[in-house]
């Protein structure tokens, strides 16, 4: 198992109040597998992914119980330095809004190079860094990688920015990519291109993918298994096809009822 | 009921203070009509000009050319608009009761605030509450209640559900449909979500770069799209396999 999350609970702090965000949530993902986390806002789907990267800030909340094992390592017991070595190297992450992960005042090429250098064992030459950054941009199927390399984030289109963020996330060939609503802000035609790109990268690099979304059409088309979350709990999980064709939990049934009839197709 | 003929609108692209660098043609020669009690969907991607068309019809901006003709029986106030982000369109300082009373006074309607709340499925005891106290779905219902104050014949709904959770989306769409039947309202439904169009609308207008590239009956266009862009949009729709 590449990543195994067992019975995780997370609380968020709001002033003096404690808001439970996750209760006893478990998740497993194997090498190369594609898993969807589905739920509405506040369901805990993003928290589950953030917990796996230990990205919940101690000011905002904490993990109150559970175990997270990634490639045999006990994530919750790792020193911060070792955790930093995993983030951005073995596990990549992309968000809905590329601006939140790209620095607006740095050229895209410089940012990808920095991501590569941070995780390199030795100091790399500028020529080697540029070569790797351009390779990452081409792998993200960006036309004119050289132009994008020299551009600032605001100088490229929304779809290209999302591809640039993907290029940065895959520059170190992660074993797992976490994508949190990666296409929600994009037009439908661009959304399709980005999802096709993620599928292609998984195939080429043998990378596993956790896709967080509220869109059942997306999980239906791109994931092997899904976890359905509601109010911080995993209410149902299983093979995507069987969960969507015969949902057992009433909430999954409700989600499916909310999909227009015409947006459902019967398996051939 | 509504006839739009050769509507055009361009916006200046400004560079620096007061300097106009050029113009972007947001709407080019757009023509279509909406019949009584009909739902027409206007689809397209960001920047296609679809929201500009909505604002032109509502009178929020003036066209450079073209005509917007309302049937003699329909007054301008009877065209109302609801938005993607209901919070931005509700005055945070007005209580629900005050907001609805003001809207009713403007249109000299005989309805009461309680009638409006009932029509949109909200309880009558929220008249003293303020917009920030409500969820996204409830705020959208408030936006609809305010629009109903004018006894609208036509509602321009600009992405009214795209910011909402999917189960809430379904509830709001159901509400819009029942209001159409109860009050004989027509809608211009502006959206990028084709799956909603198929379920809701009878007619669809596909917009790209300011122009309507294809229009007609939803079933006809979804089954036999003629335009290359319509085909691309349809191919990008991700359906749930069950």
List the helices and strands and how they pair.
The complex is a heterodimer of chains A (268) and B (242).
Chain A: E1 3-14, E2 17-29, E3 34-38, H1 45-52, E4 61-70, E5 73-74, H2 80-86, E6 91-94, H3 108-118, H4 126-139, H5 145-149, H6 158-170, E7 176-180, H7 188-205, E8 208-213, H8 216-222, E9 225-230, E10 233-239, H9 240-245, H10 250-257, E11 264-265
Parallel strand pairs in A: 3-8, 3-9, 6-7, 7-8
Antiparallel strand pairs in A: 1-2, 1-4, 4-5, 9-10
Chain B: E1 2-14, E2 20-34, E3 39-43, H1 50-58, E4 65-70, E5 79-82, H2 86-89, H3 96-107, H4 113-119, H5 136-148, E6 154-158, H6 166-183, E7 186-191, H7 194-200, E8 203-208, E9 211-217, H8 218-223, H9 228-235, E10 240-241
Parallel strand pairs in B: 3-7, 3-8, 5-6, 6-7
Antiparallel strand pairs in B: 1-2, 1-4, 8-9
Helix pairs in contact in B: 3-5
Describe it for me?
The complex is a heterodimer of chains A (about 270) and B (about 240). In chain A, α3 (about 110-120) crosses α4, α3 (about 110-120) packs parallel to α6 (about 160-170) and α4 crosses α6 (about 160-170). In chain A, the strands form 2 sheets. Chain A has a 6-stranded mixed β-sheet with strand order 6-7-8-3-9-10, with helices on both faces. Chain A has a 4-stranded antiparallel β-sheet with strand order 2-1-4-5, with helices on one face. Chain A is α/β, with parallel strands linked by helices. Chain A has helices spanning about 45-50, 80-85, 110-120, 125-140, 145-150, 160-170, 190-205, 215-220, 240-245, 250-255, and strands at about 5-15, 15-30, 35-40, 60-70, 75, 90-95, 175-180, 210-215, 225-230, 235-240, 265. Chain B has a single domain (about 1-235), classed as P-loop containing nucleotide triphosphate hydrolases (Rossmann fold, 3-Layer(aba) Sandwich), CATH 3.40.50. Chain B has 9 helices and 10 strands. In chain B, α3 packs parallel to α5 (about 135-150). The interface between A and B is medium-sized, with 32 and 24 residues. β11 (about 265) of chain A pairs parallel with β10 (about 240) of chain B.
């Amino acid at each position: 198992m590449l990543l195994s999350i067992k019975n995780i609970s997370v609380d968020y702090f709001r002033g003096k109040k404690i808001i439970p965000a996750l209760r006893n949530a478990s998740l497993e993902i194997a090498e190369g597998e594609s898993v969807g986390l589905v739920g509405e806002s506040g369901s805990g789907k993003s928290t589950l992914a953030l917990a796996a990267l230990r990205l919940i800030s101690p000011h905002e909340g904490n993990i109150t119980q559970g175990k997270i094992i990634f490639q045999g390592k006990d994530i919750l017991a790792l020193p911060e330095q070792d955790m930093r070595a995993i983030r951005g190297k073995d596990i990549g992450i992309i968000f809905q809004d590329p601006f939140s992960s790209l620095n607006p005042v740095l050229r895209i090429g410089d940012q990808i190079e920095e991501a590569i250098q941070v995780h390199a064992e030795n100091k790399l030459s500028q020529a080697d860094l540029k070569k790797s950054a351009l390779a990452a941009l081409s792998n993200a199927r960006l036309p004119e990688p050289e132009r994008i390399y020299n551009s600032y984030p605001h100088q490229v289109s929304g779809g290209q920015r999302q591809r640039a963020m993907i290029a940065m996330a895959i520059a170190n060939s992660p074993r797992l990519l976490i994508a949190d609503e990666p296409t929600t802000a994009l037009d439908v035609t661009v959304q399709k291109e980005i999802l096709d790109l993620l599928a292609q990268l998984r195939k080429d690099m043998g990378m596993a993918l956790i896709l967080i979304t509220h869109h059942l059409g997306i999980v239906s088309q791109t994931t092997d298994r899904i976890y359905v979350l509601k109010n911080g709990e995993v209410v149902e999980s299983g093979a995507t096809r069987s969960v969507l064709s015969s949902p057992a939990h009433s909430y999954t049934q409700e989600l499916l009822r909310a999909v227009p009839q015409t947006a459902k197709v019967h398996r051939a | 009921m509504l006839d739009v003929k050769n509507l055009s609108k361009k916006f200046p692209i400004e560079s620096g203070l007061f300097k106009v660098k050029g113009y972007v043609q947001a709407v080019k020669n757009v023509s279509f009509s909406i019949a009584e009690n009909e739902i027409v969907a206007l689809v397209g991607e960001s920047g296609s000009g679809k929201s500009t068309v909505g604002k032109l019809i509502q009178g929020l901006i003036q066209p450079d050319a073209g005509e917007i003709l309302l049937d003699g029986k329909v007054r301008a106030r009877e065209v109302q608009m609801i938005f993607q982000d209901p919070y931005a369109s509700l005055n945070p300082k007005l209580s629900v009761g005050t907001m609805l009373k003001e809207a009713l006074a403007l249109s000299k309607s005989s309805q009461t605030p309680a009638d409006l709340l009932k029509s949109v499925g909200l309880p009558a005891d929220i008249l003293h509450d303020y917009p920030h106290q409500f969820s996204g779905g409830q705020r959208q219902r408030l936006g609809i209640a305010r629009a109903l104050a004018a006894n609208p014949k036509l509602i321009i709904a600009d992405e009214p559900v795209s910011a909402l959770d999917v189960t809430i989306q379904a509830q709001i769409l159901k509400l819009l449909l029942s209001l159409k039947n109860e009050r004989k309202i027509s809608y211009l439904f502006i959206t990028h979500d084709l799956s909603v169009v198929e379920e809701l609308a009878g007619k669809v207008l596909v917009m790209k770069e300011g122009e309507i590239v294809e229009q007609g009956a939803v079933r006809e266009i979804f089954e036999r799209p003629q335009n290359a862009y319509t085909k691309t949009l349809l191919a990008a729709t991700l359906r749930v396999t069950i």
